[in-house]
Amino acid sequence: MSLAFSEMSSVVLETPLPDLSVLRGVAVTALGVVAVVTGALVFKVDSMARATYLLAASFVAVGAAVVALHLDYVGVVVVLMMLMEMAVMGVFMVMLMGMNPALMPMSMVHSKRRALVAAGASFVVLAVGILLVDWPQRSSVPPEGPAGSTEGGATTYSLGDALMGDHMLVMMVVSPVMLATIVAGVVLAQAQGRYARLGDDLRGTTQGGRR
Amino acid sequence: MTLEVVLVVAAALFSVGLYGALSQQVVVMVMMGLELMLNGVVLAAAGFWWFTAPEPSLQVLLVVVLAAMTVEMAMGFAVALLLHRTSGADMTDMAAELKQ
Predict the structure, then answer these.
(1) Which residues contact A8 (CB under 8 A, 6 or more apart)?
(2) Number of domains forming the structure of chain B
(3) Cα B27 to the chain's mean position, in Å?
(4) What is the CATH number of the domain that holds B13?
(5) Where are the transmembrane segments (chain B) (predicted)?
């Protein structure tokens, strides 16, 4: 089966494939607009709790749009990961801000005008580039999964096939990076390490000592 | 429905995130801006996948972007905690010595 996928992925089409279905096209556009609007409201609303929920809504919209583009696995991972991340973010807000984040009105910005100009300019540059570039035609067909699988299921199957096959190096690089992140996160976040308590030689005799 | 529509929406998401990352004073809100920028990258990559080359390689790129988002959040919160503990800072302006 893996052989079939790698062969299939390099097939060059003589005629372009039919586009997304109308329903999916409308869904992707609408969800994208929802993601942009909720994303913009994140920096507009008065409370951090609302900002967190709006950011979560933005991520859910993008995750759903990704699912509508037949990338079921990645879309579902985006939704699940970001909902948990926003929950963690809420905890950090309460912890770091030291206030009731749902009730406290706030506007904590600096260089607002410059930031707006920079954001507007980046959008204009990107949009002009997007509209001017002559994008290539689709060069391959979506993968076919095991018999009876849906299109989304087939892409999930092909992703697993790629990660455990041709693209295993990606997994092998990402895994130690994740481990290093866990270790670095603990090292940075812990209140007092053994070097702070016991000194540079870890014997408790040199400078350092308990602060 | 074309690739351009998806990319323009993704560019809008990226720009909104850029505004947040540049303008917000609270560290957590700055990170929200960065997340929104990566959100745009995810949408753009998914659009590229479908409209140019629906094959596994681009999906793998999306997995890498998701991993980058995770690392960014974890490291960002760890540094925010460290800053808060050492100098009581929860706003970027309170950590201005970092640019010296």
Answers:
(1) A140, A141, A143, A144
(2) 1
(3) 13
(4) 1.10.287.3510
(5) 6-22, 34-52, 58-83
Any domain includes B46: yes
Q: Given an 8 Å threshold on Cβ–Cβ distance, is B13 in contact with A138?
A: no
B26 touches A at CB < 8 Å? yes
What are the pLDDT digits (tens) for A9-57? Answer: 444 555 555 567 788 888 999 999 999 999 999 888 877 778 888 999 9
Nearest CB to A42: which of B5, B32, B53?
A: B32
- Asked whether residue B55 is assigned to any structural domain, the reply reads yes
3-state secondary structure B39-73: HHHHHHHHHHHHHCCCCHHHHHHHHHHHHHHHHHH
Distance CA A82, CA B64 (A): 15
User: B60 lies in which domain range?
Assistant: 3-88
B95/chain A closest Cα distance in angstroms: 14
Cross-chain Cβ contact A108/B24 below 8 Å: yes
Predicted confidence (pLDDT) per residue in A50-96, tens digit: 888 899 999 999 999 999 988 889 999 999 999 998 888 878 777 77
Q: How far apart are CA A191 and CA A189, in angstroms?
A: 6
